Amino acid sequence: MKKPSIKDVAKLAGVSTATVSNVFSGRKAVNDDLKDRVRGAAQQLGYQANRAASQLRSQRNQVVAVLVPNLTDTFFAKIISNLENMAFSHGYDVIVASSHDRLDVEESRINALLRWQPAGLIAIPCSGSIPKSIANLKDTTPVVMVDRVSVEDCLFDTVTIDNFKSGVDAGVFLSQQGHEKILIAASNLDHPPIKNRTQGCFETVEQLGGRCEVLALGSDLEEGANVLGSWLDNNEHPTAIFGLTNVTTLSVLTAMADRNIRVCDDISLVAHDDYAWMSARSTSLTVMQQPVDDIAKTAWNRLIARIESKEVNQEPQSSVLEAHLVKRKSVKKL
Amino acid sequence: MKKPSIKDVAKLAGVSTATVSNVFSGRKAVNDDLKDRVRGAAQQLGYQANRAASQLRSQRNQVVAVLVPNLTDTFFAKIISNLENMAFSHGYDVIVASSHDRLDVEESRINALLRWQPAGLIAIPCSGSIPKSIANLKDTTPVVMVDRVSVEDCLFDTVTIDNFKSGVDAGVFLSQQGHEKILIAASNLDHPPIKNRTQGCFETVEQLGGRCEVLALGSDLEEGANVLGSWLDNNEHPTAIFGLTNVTTLSVLTAMADRNIRVCDDISLVAHDDYAWMSARSTSLTVMQQPVDDIAKTAWNRLIARIESKEVNQEPQSSVLEAHLVKRKSVKKL
DNA sequence: TGCCATTAGTAAATCGTTTTACAGAACAAT
DNA sequence: ATTGTTCTGTAAAACGATTTACTAATGGCA
């Protein structure tokens, strides 16, 4: 019942194991007839090269590790899906781990990933700071940090969007539409993107003469809805809300629905990130749309460049992309 | 710059490599002071066992492979997230591949997965039939097939829900609420779950005196919205729609929004599966909720049982779970 | 004391590949 | 005929862990 090894194939084809290896790796030329014989034998036995063995001997590993805070958030899922695609077409496999947004889990998941000795690592950390075990990788393994990173003090290549500008754009748009009392529904201000979006929006609105309030809703939908709900019950309503993430936007919608507050008619809404469900509504949501495919693509290209050119000691490079305002129907002109 | 190996640790700690191995694997007792010395040395060098080497030698592989049709569908993402969790707590790693709902990709992704010689495979195929390379695994590697499988002719353990009953329940509920003209918005009738849901609902409604129509919208949101849209433009409207998947439901909502048709007031709606956004609306959606966590848990338990008890030749076992009706506000009582 | 059982360690074999170092054959150019 | 070069192929070493088989030391018990 054991799987056939390269020796079995070699024996059946009447050649040495080196030749079999050469047939499949293509690193040395092999006569066509021999090639056929080897391929035939492999086929017949159902031979598949053992990755562990080949990785061990060759010291190269066609694997990249990917760490995300959460697999069920479509934003991260899309990034992974893109990465998986590109990796596959480059002959790499991907191993994925989720930190479930917990620092302790993060640390141990990273260690598990590293035991694979991956050729590279693409990581979206759950907090703004770089986990110890990743920092240790400096000069050893190519690393690209994505999304939840502060660009300035990062030791590695980074791919982010200009979250401050994203906040500014939303603030400008809402102000232009006449909104002067705006609530920023943030998730967690410890996350650099959230902090920056908040600052961008806040400063802009205040500068343009409006007033801005910030509320941290956390990353749990229900809880966020409750927090916002009781805030709404005890405060004068804003004319517009800026929902900084998928989940906060859902919290906002939930709290509003519970109180029969209508989107647009009663309170305008701008969401961050663009999910399918945001358009599939009678009042489709105006959003700051992140270029998620580009983010993934950029991260992959950075990583592959590091891996293949061995540009290990070169300066870290930070790529900053931009979110774009997509106007739909959730913002009322006052 | 090379990573330290077990030899380096052994040398630094002044012991043999066997002892180092024993310290970390715990397979043989080691004196406490030696243990400390070894651990210290490992720490100092930043030693991490090379998985490839240990897998190769020990012939066991703490890896399970997971194949899904799509990573960005939250349903599959949740399953993966659950699996990843359980795997991790059992000391396994997970490698994930997506077939992107294409048969040719599926085949090659499976082969890539299998080169890892995983301890087991959990697969959600993209069509109802079992891919060749999975069929070959019979008697070799434990396999659990999930969701898109026809239970009868499957060679492997299966975990599914009773999709026929799911359709029946939706049909009964809608009929009870007085709906007699129902449109079933299906995605792709080749998928066994979809076929079964459709049949269950169709037969029930007809039996209870209503009329049912079936429309296949495919798995692209926009396209589905167009198909449904032109159908709505050219046919007498149903009083209720049963959306069989996440995406079809989004297509339905899009087509309705485009035409200013109100959910519930104009056309009632029952969705299949339960996503966060379905509740975060003023008219929250009534749904058939799949026990997604249970599905993942059951699949994992089956797989682990096969892996650990080596019950390779035992009869395949099929676990059938149930979806539950969650009543919310999208269905009008006529 | 003598004998057996248990414990704690090591040297060396091993897993399935890839790679190195070498060799014979064929052919071209001198 | 000699030399060099290119092509194909092989035997054996190597990768870094685990496991086997063996030894030495310790302790318990008659």
Automatic annotation (TrEMBL), chains A, B:
Keyword presence, Transcription: yes
HTH lacI-type domain segment(s): 4-58
Pfam families per record: LacI, Peripla_BP_3
InterPro entries (UniProt xref): HTH_LacI, LacI/GalR-like_sensor, Lambda_DNA-bd_dom_sf, Peripla_BP_I
SUPFAM superfamilies: lambda repressor-like DNA-binding domains, Periplasmic binding protein-like I
Keywords recorded for this protein, A-Z: DNA-binding, Repressor, Transcription, Transcription regulation
PANTHER family in UniProt: HTH-TYPE TRANSCRIPTIONAL REPRESSOR PURR-RELATED, LACI-RELATED TRANSCRIPTIONAL REPRESSOR
Designated name of the protein: LacI family DNA-binding transcriptional regulator
